[in-house]
Specification:
The protein is globular and about 45 Å long. A three-stranded antiparallel beta sheet has the order 3-5-4. The chain has one domain (about 1-120): Orthogonal Bundle (Arc Repressor Mutant, subunit A). It is built from five helices and five strands, in the order ββααβαββαα. The chain is α+β, with helices and mostly antiparallel strands. A hairpin with a 2-residue loop joins strand 4 (about 85-90) and strand 5 (about 95-100).
Length: about 130
Amino acid sequence: MKAPDRCGAAVTTAAPAPSSRDLPHPAREEIRLEGVLHALSDPMRLQIVRELATKDTELACSAFDVPVTKSTTTHHFRVLREAGVIRQVYRGTAKMNGLRREDLDERFPGLLDCLLAAAARQTARVDEG
């Protein structure tokens, strides 16, 4: 089934959503470690999550400055959503993105903070070098 994606082109959804504007998300108990690690293994997706982690609010897709095409950006957000790392909801015409910190911390205590700290240290080393 094709669903409209405000971050880019139409994408295939994993399961039919209750309405055309509702996006499928895994329930907390369905979030799997290997899915989270895979989602965060890409530098662009990690950048998106790092930015969401610094905010106490949802951000629109257009708020992210990622140096890739619109269709690639759509793919990155979909991978993060399907892994259970972010929640995407429509607010008017904007697709808003929020980090599922509470769900991730419940499933894998300390994992997100550890990964974010490691990413910050890596960025600092690259910036120094």
